[in-house]
Specification:
The complex is a heterodimer of chains A (about 110) and B (about 120). Chain A is mainly beta and about 110 residues long. Chain A contains no helices and ten strands. In chain B, a hairpin with an 8-residue loop joins strand 9 and strand 10. Classes of the chains: A mainly beta (about 110), B mainly beta (about 120).
Chain lengths: ~110, ~120
């Protein structure tokens, strides 16, 4: 069955450092992968989408890579800030990126300390 | 930007009663909406895909007679938890795709915390 794995343990880093979160998937060939941020008691907020033919995508302090050979995506936050503290979810998808269903990983909680 | 409004944000109900959760797209038309359930410290589990004007598609293991989904218009989808029991207590979240393009991901409602006592 399809399996999506993210670091289950919380990631604690110092403000200003780069946070790197990992998303691995098995028994799955996603056409794209999305990353979301979720704060406690709130719905997820979309951050970035990367397609299978893209190696890397950037948006401000965020960078996402997608390695279809390793079946892995890495999510980086550079110059991290305490406000970046949240749970980050990866969601590989198939079909249309407009209407295809997403399967979410369990999320990695990031804590940025001042 | 595209906004999905979800109500209520929390609800407490007695065991055996039914609860309806609404999800509205405020400034766009949502042909497809998704319903998720999330237990504490766990990920979002897709329950069903809701398409306007047709029957919802349920994920394996989700009881369609217990979780009734209605998507009667392009701006409103509802999830009714029928004969709720304490094990149905969870965080329910809806989402919709933004019609401006696949690069913008999905927009989510703020979620509904259901507690069945």
């Amino acid at each position: 069955s399809q399996k999506i794995e993210q670091n289950s343990e919380a990631l604690n880093i110092q403000e200003g450092k780069t946070a790197t979160l990992t998303c691995n998937y098995t028994n799955y060939s996603p056409a794209y992968l999305q990353w979301y941020r979720q704060d406690p008691g709130r719905g997820p907020v979309f951050l970035l989408l990367i397609r299978e033919n893209e190696k890397e995508k950037r948006k401000e302090r965020l960078k996402v890579t997608f390695d279809t050979t390793l079946k892995q995506s890495l999510f980086h936050i550079t110059a991290s800030q305490p406000a970046d503290s949240a749970t980050y979810l990866c969601a590989p998808g198939q079909g249309s990126s407009n209407t295809g269903k997403l399967i979410f990983g369990q999320g990695t909680t990031l804590q940025v300390k001042p | 930007g595209a906004v999905v409004s979800q109500h209520p944000s929390w609800v407490i109900c007695k065991s055996g009663t039914s609860v309806k959760i609404e999800c509205r797209s405020l400034d766009f038309q949502a042909t497809t909406m998704f319903w998720y359930r999330q237990f504490p410290k766990q990920s979002l589990m897709l329950m069903a895909t809701s398409n306007e004007g047709s029957k919802a598609t349920y994920e394996q293991g989700v009881e369609k007679d217990k979780f009734l989904i209605n998507h009667a218009s392009l701006t409103l989808s509802t999830l009714t938890v029928t004969s709720a029991h304490p094990e149905d207590s969870s965080f329910y979240i809806c989402s919709a795709s933004i019609p401006t393009g696949g690069e913008n991901g999905y927009t989510f409602g703020s979620g509904t915390r259901l507690t069945v006592v």
